[in-house]
């Protein structure tokens, strides 16, 4: 019998270490995905601004130019 009740203490510590490393790997993957999502979100916002500019500024300007030339 051991002094503090850890007959297989080394095994328990090793098992805990392996679980911790597994969780740490998952956290690293999650952090990487979060960074990718933030980058993607910013790119989507930029694209939406460009689409809005095309829809509300560029296309109406071209339509006005076309109508002017057509007259």
Query: Measured on Cα atoms, how large is the radius of gyration?
Result: 30 Å
Secondary structure: helix percent: over 70%
Helical segment count: 1
Give a short account of the largest sheet. none
Q: Ends: how far apart?
A: 102 Å
Low-confidence spans = none
Principal-axis shape = rod-shaped
What is the number of E strands? 0
Structural class: mainly alpha
> How much β-strand is present in the residues?
under 5%
User: From N to C, what is the helix and strand string?
Assistant: H
Mean pLDDT figure: 90
In short:
It contains 1 helix and no strands. With 71 residues, it is mainly alpha-helical.
Report on this structure.
The protein has 71 residues and is mainly α. The mean pLDDT is 90. The protein has one helix and no strands. It has one helix spanning 9-70. The protein is rod-shaped.
Annotation keywords:
mainly alpha; 1 helix; 0% strand; rod-shaped
Q: What is the secondary structure topology, with strand pairs?
A:
Blueprint: H1 9-70
